[in-house]
Fold these 2 entries.
Entry 1:
Amino acid sequence: MGLGTTSPLTVLGCALAVHSAAATGSHHFATDSSTFDYVVVGGGTSGLVVANRLTENRHNTVLVIERGYFDDKPEAIIPWYSTAVDTSVLLNPRSAPNSKLYNATHNVTVAAVVGGATVVNGMGCDRGSKADYDAWEELGNPGWGWNGLLPYFKKSTTFTPPNPDVVDRWNITWNSATYGKGPVQVHISNFQYPDIDTIWEGFRQQPGVTFPPGSSSGFGPGAYWSANTIDARGMTRSTARSAYYDPVNKTRSNLRLVIGQTATELLFDRGKPLRAKGVRVVSSFDAKVRNVYARKEVILAAGAVMTPHLLQVSGIGPASVLKAAGIKVEKDLPSVGANFQDHATVVLWFNLSTPSFPNSDSMSNNATYNATVWEEYLTNRTGPVAAANSNSIIYYSLAQVLSPSAAASVASRLLAQDARQYLPAIYSTSSALLRGFKAQRAILAQRFTTNTSSYTAQPLRGNGQSPSPLLKPLSRGTVTLNLTHPESLPVVQYNTFINPIDEELAVAVVRRSRRYWASPALQKLGPTERQPGAEYQTDTEISDYLKANRLALFASLAHPSGTCAMMPEKLGGCVGSDLRVYGVKGLSVVDASVIPLISGTSLQATVYAIAEKAADIIKARG
Ligand SMILES: Cc1cc2nc3c(=O)[nH]c(=O)nc-3n(C[C@H](O)[C@H](O)[C@H](O)COP(=O)(O)OP(=O)(O)OC[C@H]3O[C@@H](n4cnc5c(N)ncnc54)[C@H](O)[C@@H]3O)c2cc1C
């Protein structure tokens, strides 16, 4: 991670244990109770929200089962660490080889820690455009459009603006009306490197750019001051744990969280209809196996990679896959593990010959500066260590990446495709899945021709790294249990570029990024393209480079979603708009798996809002 000479681990005197041992004593199973009103699988982002809200009613008892532990390391607390991922709290399976990328495999970032991905994520906290969420409603989910979600975006968040002098100096904008008084603390950093001026001057020079107020307002394309999940009261990371668990842990005897416990199977009453009655759990401490039971519901919040896995090992999934793995089919549901989406990302790098000092590389290449700013953080909670990854981002519609007429032509070609040719095999055996994809495709084609939602973005830190995620992927991946070892980690197939239009548009995104870096303002930094490199000019050259270089094309931005999609069952859905799994009573899903069509930004704000809404839906059915 390049800390120069002074490691904050040393500065903090290693007072913080890796897995908070103090916490484990009270987070084992009690011997006396194995039945709760609700059993939540996964003490991550969505699981802790739902557990908190359900236990607001002291008559509800809730058990949260979490495979990870408490993480009180500086990496989980200090904002600067968001610039790199702490892999010690990840499961990190490798993806399956992708034939479109010369059989490359990729990291799959699966958090295993109390607080889930919010403990390791990049701390960006933006919302997609109104049109992104309205698409969910158009796909047959009443109440799940922007207007239905906005109260929950607000309910989950509190925004603390930067200091007034900082606001004036940088012209920072936000929209207070889109935040509430919720547990997740959101902030735009007081610290900005001087070259951020140049980054914004570059934004202003992009044709057609707009400057909507606030990255939380649902506007879509435009240049924004992007927010972070920072708790401005102490300049620490705000996580699902710090927001939804720590504040109530001591006072709610009806909430129990067990750690180091992995849910391995759902338990059913096999009447008609099938009903989930509990969960089988294995302990990482002593390998003991227990059954726990839910009087009302089992709620799955294990994330978009592990929730479909748990469903499949329990007999809910595509019958052909389950049979091949020797698993009894409880409910044939082809949607479990299909519709997998993430934000594949092209990454350009520029060498900067004339950056200002300090800049976002200074902490790693200047030991004196590094020591000074750590001291500053520990003394005053200010400076770059108190800041997260990036606050400056520009989002582009497809029409802004190409041209309005070229975007319209892409939309027409997309609609003319024989969809089955570019989808995973499971779509050829399920007419419902295929119908669902076509419904998604019609919406995407419409979005491609308007400026209502974003196709790509450039979050910039002022160094030469220039990532651009593909925010509207057409390719669909799969999460499938391992046929020979179903209990082991699932097989994750990203299928990046399985749809050739994604590949074509990735090239266009490289060109869009280059145009930004070629704008007059950016010349102040003296940029020279290092990745891919100026010698890659034709579509084929650029595309081949991306496909052959894992550092130039990330298959994932750690935004897995869609693997138990909220859509009507006749469209290949897995849960309805009430979040109940089709064909199974007493079983809901509340995590990123339910996202039917990935929204055009990072996911945490969206997952918090989904989980807040889920809690109200579950409460209402009593
Ligand atoms: C490295 C990384 C960087 C990211 N950066 C950003 C960012 O900058 N901005 C942003 O908006 N989003 C970001 N995201 C995405 C965002 O944080 C996630 O989409 C969101 O938090 C997912 O919430 P979830 O509830 O679906 O899953 P999670 O938060 O992952 O929770 C799932 C929980 O279930 C537990 N679990 C899984 N299986 C079992 C089992 N069988 N038994 C018991 N427990 C189980 C896991 O240990 C985990 O705690 C990032 C994610 C990662 C991983």
Note: Residues 1-25 have pLDDT under 50 and may be disordered.
Entry 2:
Amino acid sequence: MATRLYTHPVCLEHLVPPGHPERPDRLRAIAKVLAHDVFDPLDRVEAPLADEGMLLLAHPQTYIHRVREAIPAEGMERIDADTVVSPRSWDAALAAVGASVTAVDDVFTGRADNVFVATRPPGHHAERDRAMGFCLFNNAAIAARYARKAHVAERVAIVDWDVHHGNGTQDIFRDDPSVLYCSTHQMPLYPGTGASSETGAGNIVNVPLAPGSGSDLFREALETAILPRIDEFQPDLIIISAGFDAHHRDPLAELNFTEQDFSWATAKLMESAGRWSSNRVVSLLEGGYDLEGLGLSVAAHVGRLMKG
Ligand SMILES: [Zn+2]
């Protein structure tokens, strides 16, 4: 078996104004590093567009309709201070969701050991009925709910190491103890949520890190607060909200992680998946805004996934 990689050209057509950090070049930077011959064994598949019904797993119909109506016929439309849509954004969002749920199928049916989904828009800030922070639909939340519905997974763990707190994922699962949501993130920072006191139905583990925190504090957070909770929870699937904006090169935050930290964390979560979830790991791209830092980090992360 292999590591599968999903992306889709339409994700390059989700356009943003000049200077916006969540830009198509992010996916081009990822494609460039993954073109290296060490990544030849990747099983590269074009992301299928999701049925719109999949969105209902995490969002109400009224919200889905509102996003659809906001998509302009031409130009760009701002639907939040940071979140912009353009004519192909709907299909890009469906490709991101489609890849995320198909990745779940892949790991449950044995088509892949693990999967990395390189799509945009990202998802972890999207709440049940609110687009924000570059996110329209919550890919990780939809994938988790899909695993429960389509593959009878009893418990799913989502680990989010993006430098920003995944307020959307927390919002969606705050009263759903079938999903464990664990996040490391810089605090204070956008979106302002993610205090350790926010525990939902006992299924939310937030480990805020002060600006300037580096490798040691990240690894300690994972080893002392998150991995033990995963062992307690015994998930049938581990989903990674893989943002790489905690990298020291990133312009949006002040954490100082290295690409080796992402490789290390990947290995740790693969160990957990080996214990509890038959190695099932689905990793979804979230943030990461310095193109070089993003490329190095994705290479380290995917390289580790490929080691199985
Ligand atoms: Zn982020």
Note: Residues 162-164, 243, 245, 286-287 surround zinc ion (CB under 6 Å).
